[in-house]
Amino acid sequence: SIIPDYLAQALGDVESDTSGRLADYIPELAAADPERLGAVFATVDGEVYGAGDIDTEFTIQSISKPFAYALALADRGFDPVLAKVGVEPSGEAFNQISLEIDTGRPLNPMINAGAITAHSLAGSEDMNPSERVERVVRGLSAFAGRPLEIDESVCVSEMEHAHRNLAIAHMLRSYGILTENPRDVVEGYTRQCSVLVTARDLAMMAATLANRGVNPLSGERVIHEPVVRQVLSVMSTCGMYDAAGDWATQVGIPAKSGVAGGLIGALPGQIGIATFSPRLDAHGNSVRGVSLFERFSSDMGLHVMEVP
Ligand code: GLN
């Protein structure tokens, strides 16, 4: 296949771009090697192609959000989830304290307010906080097709500085959107964000979305098609935060970024793509990841609004 050579060349072309900064509001993330760079394509028929640092582990961070949202929809059904988390793009930063004025409902599940709520809705209502985390980690693992683990030091590091997410959770509790102890929910959400993945894992997770909810390698049906459609729709409108409009026009692939430098895209019926490069732009999206996706989209005509 020519794909690995193509990927290696694309990495070579963006390698010299050292712009952007590591996330440092989570001190442990500032210790990452900023030079890491990798890209993986995983097709819906189970082919996996990669170049660069594709087996280096890093924390999933916000890329967990669409998958936890999927689990909440699968476990509780659409109506109970939609009653507590909207689907409107916020056009705001990921950590914006933004809730609907009258109801307190977070605008969408990709910003922290909505993701903290979605975490609380994964699993069944009667689960305790650690059972819920277990449910989420098991679910993320099914998407990836291998058992994933939590990076405890990143989790502790984030919890020590989680004042903003705690504030958001207390607001949500005051509106009755959260019914549990806000600290427990933030801790669970932070554990979810601290799950360790590789670019290869992320590509498989994206490929599972691209493949109607069935992991292309394990063959496991992780979620049903209506949930896939809901999740991909929300990714395409809200996945890149306040850069969602630029992304929709330039790249045109449902996507999600994380502050540890991961970035995924899922093209229905075709392919899951993941990149890893830790330096971030002002929106909190990976600089070299965004460049790579722009290139992949234009080289291969992957924009969903283009006729193939
Ligand atoms: N755990 C991070 C937070 O809640 C995730 C943010 C992100 O990846 N954009 O702030």
Automatic annotation (TrEMBL):
Enzyme Commission code(s) on record: 3.5.1.2
Does the record's keyword annotation contain Hydrolase?
yes
Quaternary state and interactors = Homotetramer.
Q: Which EC class is the enzyme in?
A: hydrolase
Q: Name one GO molecular function term.
A: glutaminase activity
Catalyzed reactions: L-glutamine + H2O = L-glutamate + NH4(+)
**Similarity remark:** Belongs to the glutaminase family.
| Name of the protein in question | Glutaminase
> Which residues bind substrate per the record?
S62, N112, E158, N165, Y189, Y241, V259
Membrane-traversing stretches: none
Which part of the full protein does this chain span, and how long is the full protein?
Answer: 3 to 310 of 430
Q: Which UniProt keywords apply?
A: Acetylation, Hydrolase
Entry keyword Hydrolase: yes
